[in-house]
Design a protein that fits this description.
Blueprint lengths: L1 H17 L11 E7 L7 E5 L2 E4 L4 E4 L5 E5 L8 E7 L7 H13 L11 H18 L18 E3 L4 H16 L6 E5 L2 E3 L1 E3 L2 E11 L5 E4 L8 E3 L7 E8 L6 E10 L6 E5 L8 E4 L4 E11 L3 E10 L9 E5 L7 E6 L5 E3 L3 E2 L1 E9 L4 E2 L5 E5 L4 E10 L1 E21 L2 E12 L4 E5 L5 E6 L5 E3 L6 E9 L11 E5 L8 E10 L5 E12 L4 E6 L4 E6 L11 E6 L5 E3 L7 E9 L11 E6 L2 E2 L1 H4 L2 E2 L4 E10 L11 E6 L4 E6 L5 E3 L3 E2 L1 E9 L10 E6 L6 E8 L31 E4 L5 E4 L1
Parallel strand pairs: 9-18, 19-27, 28-35, 36-43, 36-44, 45-52
Antiparallel strand pairs: 1-4, 1-6, 2-3, 2-7, 4-5, 5-17, 6-16, 8-11, 10-11, 11-14, 12-15, 13-14, 15-18, 16-17, 19-22, 19-23, 20-21, 20-24, 24-26, 25-27, 28-29, 28-32, 30-31, 30-33, 33-34, 36-37, 36-40, 38-39, 38-41, 41-42, 45-48, 45-49, 46-47, 46-50, 50-51, 53-54
Helix pairs in contact: 1-2, 1-3, 2-3, 2-4, 3-4
Length: about 750
């Protein structure tokens, strides 16, 4: 029993040594030990002399404090009395043995009570774990049967107390492994850079406690007045928030932490009795000892202030404009947000010294947000002013002018060449002029559409405007609509609010109509008379370059109808054209070789009101009549008839004093010319002359014919002879005769 008490005392002493520095003692220098040996407290048995006996694990306490003590010499006398003096645990055991004792006391009772254990069960398990460790290591005063390594079957737990032996064996395994109990306080981060928040600097750190069962304290005495630490309880791992006033800008501070735990080597003390027969004891106190310390550096950046002054482009102060202040040019690390007040200004809280970047986040109507990121240099404890101006959003009126316009031609072949029919499509119309007036009726813009039919005003103030076309383009009807356009603020991201007006101009329809007149020959009246010309073909050509059509482009073929009228059907753009006759229905009608100019600016009827007239081919038959015997003698009075092949009489004509006669105008055809009455004194010619009048001949066919005169010759040798004269008579006409009397050698006398 004495030995057991000594071992218990030794174990307690080792426990105390492990919980405190060896230079410090956790208990009084001299104490009185009280022991209880009641067998009712034994939970384990050992085997001896053929039977199981109580292991007898008494309770040992320090009478002055009531603290638990453990005997460390099982075979020595039961510890008791007031002669126990404190000693260093290292003076009792070697370093190796002491380390195991300290481990058992740190993980055993009273530092820990396993779940489901009574305090006494935990105590006995701890006391016997010390016995097992010391016996296993051959310490003096130990029984061999408590050596669990060499004699594991010599001990057992009483029924229902198996957990006590199990826990004792587990503590023994800790001692074998030299399982130490590590205590620590860790700040994460270990150096804290506070950030500005309003008029303060704020930051957070995590406090992690490891084996600190009695909490920790913070020393914040270095922090300036007005500082605070929130989230601190001191009882467990936690996150604390440190707040410093803005007056601490650019300074550094330190906060230290001290952690305590009852499981401290400082709580282990060895007690040595004056009586050498008694067991030494080890005391394991439960006083919270400082077991860990840590510190964190708290830094505040150097700070200054930023003042933003916001104005419009008219100089007015702008309230309620929001800005973000950032640490980087990419504006991803926001330092704060600022909103201008009624005077258009706002001053930040503390900002880090150096360059900051200012981005406008929102503005007010009718302004456009400033998209350029500004920068400012913050100086320590100074206010830096940044002037930012907003530009007013404006409006713009845009016009899209379209119309059906010439875009090409459709080609087709004809007997008269390629016909290029104009082709149209809607596209922008250039050259239209518009006036834009404000609500006061003042002209604020005059616009002319470009090649794409587009025009736009300059920048306009928001409001209502009137827009009207004041000058159109030839060939198109002018739009007379008075367009109302309202321009209003859209949003802060729309610098120019565009309002587009689409205007379509109607192409002025064009056409041309002509009338064709010609002639026919009236065989009853034997004269040419006018009539309408049917089947005449005209080509309509460009007389100038019109759009994409070059000059002399054939755009349409026109054929006159039964009324002699031809109308254009193609859509013709405005411009100058000319008509050219390409074909006549009857070759006996002259094909006009001249051109007929016209201007297409609507419905052209100039050649309908004054028709285009074609003459028929006309021919004449003329006769020169002379004396056959005297070519220079022209014969007057010869009468001729002109008949066609069917014998129809067309004309009767008589030669004049020059011996010339010409017929009336005759149509193309075949005729017979015959003398029906000779000149006086001449013999009638029975010759019939065939005459053909064609489009290839001259207009007048001239026939030269002669007549033979009727003659009577009277001869007498002399004028004195009484013989009758000889005469030859020949008829000249049917109704009379002319006699020619010739006397030889005298003169000839002409008798009638």
């Amino acid at each position: 029993m004495k030995t057991k008490r000594i071992v218990a005392i030794l174990l307690c002493a080792l426990t105390v040594i492990g919980l405190m520095p060896t230079a410090a003692l956790a208990a009084e220098s001299t104490v009185t030990i009280e022991s209880q040996t009641n067998s009712a407290f034994d939970y384990l048995e050992y085997y001896k002399d053929g039977e199981w006996k109580d292991l007898n694990t008494p309770r040992h306490t320090v009478e002055q404090t009531g603290e638990i003590a453990y005997c460390i010499e099982h075979s020595a006398g039961n510890p008791h009395g007031d002669t126990y003096t404190a000693a260093s645990p290292s003076s009792v055991f070697s370093t190796s043995i002491l380390a195991g004792v300290q481990t058992i006391l740190m993980y055993g009772y009273p530092c820990n009570t396993p779940a489901g254990f009574t305090a006494d069960e935990a105590r006995q398990a701890t006391a016997n774990a010390l016995r097992f460790w010391l016996s296993e290591n051959g310490e003096e005063g130990s029984y061999n049967f408590t050596n669990r390594k060499s004699n594991p079957g010599y001990l057992r737990a009483k029924s229902g107390y198996e957990h006590v032996l199990e826990w004792a064996d587990e503590l023994l395994s800790y001692a074998r492994a030299k399982k130490t109990l590590t205590h620590s306080i860790v700040f994460t981060p270990s150096s804290l850079q506070l950030a500005a928040s309003g008029n303060s600097f704020v930051g957070q750190t995590k406090v992690k406690l490891t084996n600190i069962n009695s909490g920790y304290t913070l020393n914040t005495s270095s922090l300036p007045s007005g500082s605070s630490v929130t989230g601190y309880t001191g009882r467990a791992s936690e996150t604390i928030t440190i707040t410093l006033p803005d007056s601490a800008a650019g300074k550094s501070f330190t906060i230290s932490a001290t952690g305590k735990d009852t499981r401290s080597l400082s709580n282990i003390t060895a007690y040595i009795p004056a009586d050498g027969d008694l067991q030494k004891i080890f005391l394991c106190a439960t006083t919270a000892q400082v077991v860990a310390t840590a510190s964190i550096g708290v830094n505040t950046p150097a700070y200054g202030y930023l003042k933003i002054a916001k104005t419009g482009d008219n100089g007015d102060a702008l309230a309620d404009v929001k800005f973000g202040v950032y640490a980087d040019v990419g504006c991803t690390s926001k330092l704060c947000e600022l909103t201008t007040g009624a005077d258009g200004t706002v001053t930040s809280g503390a900002l880090p010294v150096g360059k900051v970047y200012v981005k406008e986040l929102s503005t007010i109507a009718p302004y456009v947000i400033e998209s350029t990121v500004k920068n400012a240099t913050i100086s320590l404890n100074k206010i830096t002013t940044l002037n930012v101006q907003n530009t007013s959003a404006k409006g713009m009126i845009c016009i899209n002018k379209t119309a059906e316009q010439l875009v090409g031609t459709t080609a087709s072949n004809s007997d008269f060449g390629q016909v290029n029919t104009p082709k149209y499509a809607a596209k922008g119309l250039a050259g239209c002029v518009f006036e834009v007036k404000n609500s006061a009726g003042k002209v604020v813009a005059t616009l002319t559409t470009d090649a794409n039919g587009y025009a736009e005003t300059g920048l306009l103030d928001f409001g209502e405007y009137k827009m009207q076309e004041v000058s159109g383009v030839a060939g198109y009807e002018m739009d007379t609509t008075d367009h109302t356009v309202t321009i209003a603020y859209a949003d802060q991201n729309t610098p120019i609010v565009k309002k587009t007006v689409n205007v379509d101009n109607t192409r002025i329809a064009t056409s041309m109509k002509l009338k064709k007149m010609t002639e026919y020959f009236d065989y009853e009246a034997l004269e040419f008379k006018p009539c309408v010309g049917k089947g005449f073909v005209f080509g309509l050509y460009t007389a100038e370059n019109i759009g994409i059509m070059p000059k002399d482009t054939l755009v349409e073929l026109l054929t006159t109808n039964e009324e002699g009228v031809a109308k254009s059907s193609a859509k013709l753009p405005f411009g100058k054209y000319y008509l050219k006759e390409l074909s006549v229905l009857d070759e006996t009608i002259h094909l006009r070789g001249d051109s007929f100019t016209l201007t297409m600016d609507g419905h052209n009827t100039v050649y309908y009101e004054a028709p285009i007239v074609n003459d028929m081919f006309k021919g004449n038959i003329a006769v020169w009549k002379s004396d056959k015997n005297d070519a220079k003698r022209m014969l007057e009075g010869a009468k001729f008839e002109i008949r066609d092949a069917d014998g129809k009489l067309f004309d009767t004509m008589t030669t004049d004093s020059d011996g010339y006669a010409v017929s009336i105008d005759l149509p193309v055809g075949s005729y017979r010319l015959q003398e029906i009455d000779p000149p006086t004194g001449f013999i009638l010619s029975d010759e019939v002359v065939k005459v053909s009048l064609s489009t290839e001949n001259k207009n007048t066919v001239v026939i030269e014919r002669t007549n033979v005169g009727n003659e009577m010759v009277l001869k007498r040798p002399t004028l004195q002879t009484a013989s009758p004269l000889q005469a030859r008579l020949s008829p000249f006409t049917r109704n009379r005769a002319m006699f020619s009397l010739k006397a030889r050698p005298m003169k000839t006398v002409r008798l009638s």
